[in-house]
Amino acid sequence: MFCHLTTRAMRSGSSSGSSTTRSHSCSRSAVGKAPPACHSRCTTARLQAAEAAGAGVSGAPFVFHNPASAEESALPPGKCWLAGVGPGSWDHVTMKVAKLIAEAEVLVYDDLGAQQAEIDKLLVALCQQGKRVVRLKGGCPSTFSRVGSEASALSAAGCVFELVPGVSTATAAAVLAGLPLTDAKLAGAYAVLSAHDAGCMDWAAVKAVPTLVILMGGRALALIVQQLQATGWPDDTPVAVVKEAGTAAQTAWFSTLASVEQDTQPGAPLSPCIIVVGRVAGLPAAWAGTNA
Known about the structure:
The protein is of the alpha/beta class and about 290 residues long. About 30% of the residues lie in helices and about 20% in strands. The strands form 3 sheets. Strands 4-1-5-7-8-6-9 form a 7-stranded mixed beta sheet, with helices on both faces. A 5-stranded mixed beta sheet has the order 10-11-14-12-13, with helices on one face. Helix 4 (about 115-130) crosses helix 5 (about 145-155). It is elongated, with a radius of gyration of 21 Å. The termini are far apart.
């Protein structure tokens, strides 16, 4: 097998405004011999692609090419799989998505800051070239993944595509922090919200929902607290903030609506994070010492 890893120019915090990663190639050794070390690096690159998509990486889009899989893959050519890779680490990738990653000719992944029109065009172009394309999405494509734009672009171009579910970051982050989103006594429902434009949301519309799961709220925590208080949520409402869920750097804070801004890292970036608001967010404190 020959592998080749490339990326497009990336936005970054450097003075030049962009960066690129090096390319490499490797070949599978003869039957009965150990694979070369560089082939292991190709496998590692695939795992890193899945983990980066789950954790949220800076810049986009990354493109991983594996030309030899055209001969070895069981996947049909000229098709795009829009696949969820779960939150954070490789541990949360489903078996089906892991198989797709292993057999894809091209992997495409990015963060939510990428230009969507550019990604749509890239996916269409790759499919029209007859490639087996796996588009990796953090969490599950069903929830705030912009999958609708990509599916619409592929459909309009006559490209075959398939949506593949993944472990939702919205639910997994809570579990990874040790709390449920529903409880027989405390909460019979939950709502998943995006705080991408927190100031324009109708917070009053979800006042009756016992548990709120707020995505992309790290930069808007103060505004979220203000809006919830203004719509009648009590100051002592439990709040959990889970940063970098599913990664080695995962951090969770358990607080209340009145104190959460002070109890998290004031002045430090909280993104990417999930915010859980409601009585269930207080359960880890009640279970302290037994919920390891």
